[in-house]
Specification:
Length: 53
């Protein structure tokens, strides 16, 4: 398995985690979001596709 490097790991993609992750990616950081649960969107969160660059 290849090793991956991330500048920041965000736990949870709710409204707070998603905003932090987006701000960091806008600043050029490589971000990994760890989420537990289903892939059903939560009101107020960003679609992961928006952050996948």
């Amino acid at each position: 398995m290849p090793k991956c490097h991330y500048d920041v790991i965000v736990i949870g993609s709710g409204p707070g985690g998603a905003i932090v992750a987006k701000e960091l990616t806008d600043k050029g950081k490589k971000v990994l979001i760890l989420e537990w649960g289903s892939n059903t969107p939560v009101k107020g969160s960003l679609a992961l596709v928006q952050l996948n660059r």
